[in-house]
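Table S2 (text version). Query chain:
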Amino acid sequence: MSIIGKCPYCKDGNIKVEKKLVKGKNTKVYTCTNASWKSEDGEMYELSKEATCSFRIWGNSLLKWGKKGIGPYEVKKLLEGKNVATRLFSYTYKKEYFKYIILDKEYGVSVLWDLEVEEELSLAG
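Corresponding structure-token output:
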């Protein structure tokens, strides 16, 4: 377990990186140290009754937009309140594009579809 930053949702939690098996594939999950998760089948996870925080970002949460995984560097930047431009891929148009992602309490991260990424950021990412 590795700590990558302070939890933005509770006052005393830290964000840790763990690996979980989801649909037969390993994925990273970033959770608060005050969040504990339970699973009956090893596929679906829900908060346990003891949890006092619900922060989590699944590493594969942007997979349907062509991003294979969200890395610790990106999560650390999100925790620091910085803009995070990420590379996505359109399977329909067969091209890559860049969008900003932000923390989202319900989904972990959300894509800002209406905000264009500045060119210098997209070239660096």
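Notes on Table S2: The helical segments are 72-79, 119-124. The first strand starts at residue 2 and ends at 6.
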